[in-house]
């Protein structure tokens, strides 16, 4: 029964995206619980700084070697083999598994040996004691890219077979592993227990997908042929994408390095707020982009140009439709979210206010971050990985430059410092330099989304401008009214002394009430304005998952 459930195939793109969105939502809840435990257990201090710094290089390896290949190469190439011969498709998969496994093990072993040098580069502001602990955690965490590397190749192939349900469950298992590490390993092993939790999460991520993968017809062969045409094409396509992702991770490394020179806990504040913002992007933008990508790749391979354009255009607008209200509510309710998610245990009031402010700044670029996924995947579906890679490199350069600029401006206590304090309500907190990092990230993300949109329009003419302008007008109007409504709902509860904001339940009720009122306003306005994006969602729910991305 359970195996049959895991093997479920998803027949439509909209329903697949809803399954993925639901999974990402539950994964986000687990992620919030994970971060709640981390914040309460360690606070925004040295321990969490070490934990997040230790993540950077293992993440770098996993992204450039595996995620780049999956998003840009494995899905379209495996799809093209599958159209002609299932046997050839599985030969390609086996060859790829073996090559990636050997490469991942070799590279991770090298980085394990040279971990002290890596830590010196990513955290120059750390004390010798913090560096030593970071090295220990990082060496354990290098098991994770090997496991997640294989697991994500499995995920990519399962998506070709439209088995989105089981691939959507994998991130939940990953978070459960880390939560298990916090609850069971940290009391026994201390901070090192977090690293063991990360490895456990990777194992669970892989194991949950194995039954469905075998059921899909996987036939393993002991092949190791770099000259295989599919492998060569995979490497050709993934190199530019890996360059782009590598640039993005270099940006994360640069951000960590800058934050390590600021006040203790700066890495933790930035990372916690970035995690929560990223969860929102994953829940809506990544889920939809992941669901539509195989269909776009197939449409392009069959030269169905109009179908390719329609799928992109609809997915682009749906991402905006979903992320605008989320961004608005994150900004309006940032303090309430921060108090509920992080404001406990060793995470003190100043930490909470700084994290809330960082979350508000991240929300400015949330919609743009979501659009980057669908814009990049549209290029990948058309077997073009160079343009997104070049855009990513340019954006990273901008991000790093802006990070230095904004941190410097905020350290100077001038007009810019006063403006940020006023807008984000940070009176009484002297050191807010860390907020320069999310501000740079958001502005650079907006620049990248605009650049990719322009390049995509120049190359493929996929934007249906008149229809898009109408939808964007409706979404913008609904978003503005949502902001006003949520703000009023938040203030009414305080003005009439309906709740006690000194209690957890009072803050939680304020968050839920204002959030529900805001979302009700957004959905109501979308209904009154006859938003086509809302109609697509309605069809997906009420027609048994047969709604389509038009």
From TrEMBL:
Say if the entry is tagged with keyword Transport: yes
The entry's cellular-component GO terms read: plasma membrane
Family annotation (InterPro entries): Lipid_II_flippase_MurJ/MviN, MurJ
The answer to keyword Transmembrane helix applying to this record is yes
Q: In which pathway does it act?
A: Cell wall biogenesis; peptidoglycan biosynthesis
**What Gene Ontology molecular-function terms does this entry list?**
lipid-linked peptidoglycan transporter activity
What membrane topology was assigned to this protein in its record?
Multi-pass membrane protein
Cellular compartments annotated: Cell membrane
Q: Which UniProt keywords apply?
A: Cell membrane, Cell shape, Cell wall biogenesis/degradation, Membrane, Peptidoglycan synthesis, Transmembrane, Transmembrane helix, Transport
Membrane-spanning segments? 12-33, 60-83, 95-117, 137-158, 165-186, 192-215, 250-273, 279-300, 312-333, 353-375, 396-420, 432-457, 477-499, 505-529
Q: Note the superkingdom of the native organism.
A: Bacteria
Q: Name one GO biological process term.
A: cell wall organization
Could you say which protein family the record assigns here?
Belongs to the MurJ/MviN family.
HAMAP family for this protein: MurJ_MviN
Function, as annotated, reads:
Involved in peptidoglycan biosynthesis. Transports lipid-linked peptidoglycan precursors from the inner to the outer leaflet of the cytoplasmic membrane.
The entry's protein name is Probable lipid II flippase MurJ
Which species expresses this protein natively? Candidatus Staskawiczbacteria bacterium RIFCSPHIGHO2_01_FULL_41_41
Q: What lineage is this protein's organism placed in?
A: Bacteria, Candidatus Staskawicziibacteriota
């Amino acid at each position: 029964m359970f195996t049959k459930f895991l093997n479920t195939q998803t027949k439509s793109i909209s329903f697949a995206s809803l399954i993925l969105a639901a999974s990402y939502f539950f994964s986000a809840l687990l992620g919030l619980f994970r971060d709640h435990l981390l914040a309460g257990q360690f606070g925004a201090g040295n321990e969490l700084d070490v934990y997040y710094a230790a993540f950077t290089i293992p993440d770098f390896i996993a992204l450039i070697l595996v995620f780049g290949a999956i998003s840009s190469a494995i899905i379209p190439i495996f799809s093209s083999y599958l159209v002609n011969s299932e046997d050839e498709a599985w030969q390609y998969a086996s060859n790829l598994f073996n090559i990636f496994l050997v490469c991942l093990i070799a590279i991770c072993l090298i980085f394990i040996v040279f971990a002290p040098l890596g830590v010196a580069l990513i955290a120059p502001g750390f004390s010798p004691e913090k560096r030593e602990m970071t090295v220990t955690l990082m060496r354990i965490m290098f098991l994770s890219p090997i496991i997640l590397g294989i697991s994500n190749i499995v995920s990519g192939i399962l998506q070709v077979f439209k088995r989105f349900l089981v691939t959507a469950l994998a991130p939940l298992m990953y978070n459960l592993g880390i939560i298990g590490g916090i609850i069971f390993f940290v009391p026994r092993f201390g901070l090192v227990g977090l690293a063991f939790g990360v490895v456990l999460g990777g194992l669970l991520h892989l194991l949950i997908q194995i039954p469905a993968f075998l059921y899909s017809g996987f036939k393993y062969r002991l092949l190791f042929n770099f000259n295989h045409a599919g492998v060569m094409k995979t490497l050709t396509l993934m190199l530019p994408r890996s360059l782009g992702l590598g640039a993005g991770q270099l940006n994360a490394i640069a951000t960590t390095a800058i934050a390590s020179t600021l006040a203790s806990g700066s890495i933790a504040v930035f990372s916690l707020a970035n995690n929560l913002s990223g969860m929102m992007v994953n829940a809506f933008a990544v889920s939809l982009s992941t669901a539509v990508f195989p269909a776009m790749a197939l449409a392009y391979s069959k030269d169905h140009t109009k179908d390719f354009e329609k799928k992109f255009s609809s997915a682009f607008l749906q991402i905006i439709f979903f992320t605008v209200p989320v961004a608005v509510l994150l900004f309006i309710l940032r303090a309430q979210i921060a108090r509920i998610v992080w404001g406990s245990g060793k995470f003190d009031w100043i930490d909470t206010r700084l994290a809330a402010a960082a979350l508000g700044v991240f929300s400015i670029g949330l919609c743009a971050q979501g659009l980057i996924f669908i814009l990049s995947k549209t290029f990948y579906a058309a077997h073009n990985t160079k343009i997104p890679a070049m855009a990513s490199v340019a954006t990273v350069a901008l991000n790093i430059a802006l990070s230095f600029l904004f941190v410097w401006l905020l350290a100077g206590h001038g007009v810019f410092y006063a403006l940020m304090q006023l807008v984000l309500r940070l009176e009484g907190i002297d050191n807010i330099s860390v907020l320069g990092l999310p501000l740079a990230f958001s502005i650079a993300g907006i620049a990248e989304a605009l650049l990719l949109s322009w390049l995509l329009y120049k190359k493929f003419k996929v934007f249906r401008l008149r229809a898009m302008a109408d939808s964007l007008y409706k979404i913008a109007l609904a978003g503005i009214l949502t902001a006003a409504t949520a703000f009023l709902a938040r203030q009414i509860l305080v003005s009439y002394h309906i709740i006690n904001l000194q209690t957890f339940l009072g803050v939680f009720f304020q968050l839920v009430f204002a959030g529900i009122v805001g979302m009700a306003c957004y959905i109501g306005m979308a209904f009154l304005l006859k938003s086509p994006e809302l109609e697509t969602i309605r069809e997906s729910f009420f027609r048994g998952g047969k709604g389509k991305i038009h």
